[in-house]
Write a structure and sequence with these properties.
The protein is an all-alpha fold. The protein is built from 15 helices and no strands. Helix 1 crosses helix 11, helix 4 runs parallel beside helix 7 and helix 4 packs antiparallel against helix 12.
């Protein structure tokens, strides 16, 4: 419990630094974009590869990923069924389903996994599942239901995960790990050095993104937003705990890990998809803000109950 509290304190302080940087506009109008690009294109791929490649494949392809897959698909299916019954529309329902199933495994998940759980490999299977499976499927649905009739290339959609440097780095790391290739220190040391910048930068970026956000957005989407928040912050963690305890019979720490990963808030990339396709923007934004606010007390509660 003390370790969790210390971890949240460290994370909270760095988040506050990011928030203050955004509030004071200390980095200028393009500060967030520059930091995000640097982290996404260089820092995070270096971090993911250096961590995964130096660990046994069993630590990467673990039960955490399977439980995350089951819980994500379950809550997304519940949202999709409800959206169909309530006639919220295919496109808005797709965004809402993503908001319930995709967790913030990058900006918040990786730092929390490192500081609180002890290893970023806990969120690696989740990240791969989201980027390699959920995202292409959801974007395909959004493209096929585009009222303007714009159709994206099938090959371009299928290649989406492989255009993502984070996904490519993680896949290469898994290959190296599975093949039990021992990379020389001369090859790993530069990546490890760059990777050390990643976690604090991601926390600062996430803190900066909190400036200007308001849970009051999306008044017209109250019903789908409420459902998405309940499924994301309530049903998904509860289902993860049930699977961990009664199905997979995990130990106490592993149970906390899978529950904590399920508690992680809606990923900010869902908001980007909503903006890109011009649908469900208030729904995605409001769900991301509210689930982010709920994540800290829920994680502390999980640490207290399961610790």
């Amino acid at each position: 419990m003390d370790g969790v509290l210390k971890g949240f304190f460290v994370v909270g302080v760095v988040l506050l630094i990011g928030y203050l940087l955004a509030r004071t506009n200390a980095l200028g109008p393009h500060g967030t974009k520059v930091l995000s690009t640097l982290t996404f294109m260089v820092g995070l791929p270096s971090l993911m590869f250096s961590i995964i490649a130096t660990r046994h494949i069993s630590e990467v392809l673990s039960q955490t990923g399977l439980i995350a897959l089951i819980t994500a698909v379950s809550v997304m299916a519940l949202f999709a069924i409800t959206g169909s019954i309530c006639r919220w529309g295919v496109r808005r329902t797709t965004i809402g389903a993503l908001a319930t199933g995709i967790v913030n495994s990058t900006n918040l998940g990786v730092p929390l996994a490192l500081y609180v759980l002890g290893s970023a490999t806990f969120v690696t299977p989740i990240m791969l599942f989201q980027l390699a499976i959920l995202t292409p499927v959801a974007l395909t649905i959004l493209d096929l239901t585009d009222p303007a009739g714009k159709k994206a290339s099938v090959w371009r959609i299928l290649a989406t995960p492989f255009r993502n440097p984070v996904t490519v780095a993680a896949i290469l790391g898994i290959i190296v790990s599975a093949a039990e290739i021992k990379l020389p220190a001369l090859a790993l040391d530069p990546l490890t050095l760059v990777a050390q910048l990643t976690v604090p930068l991601m926390l600062i970026i996430f803190g900066m993104s909190l400036h200007g956000l308001s849970p009051r957005q999306g008044i017209g989407d109250r019903a789908p937003t409420l459902l998405a928040v309940i499924l994301k912050s309530g049903v998904q963690p509860a289902l993860a705990w049930i699977l961990a305890v009664f199905v997979f019979h995990l130990d106490d720490f592993s149970t906390f890990v899978v529950t904590a990963c399920a508690i992680l808030p809606t990923g900010q990339n869902v908001v980007l998809y909503a903006v890109r396709y011009g649908v469900g923007q208030n729904l995605a934004q409001s769900t991301a803000v509210i689930t982010s606010a709920l994540a800290v007390p829920l994680l502390l509660g999980a640490a207290w109950l399961l610790g």
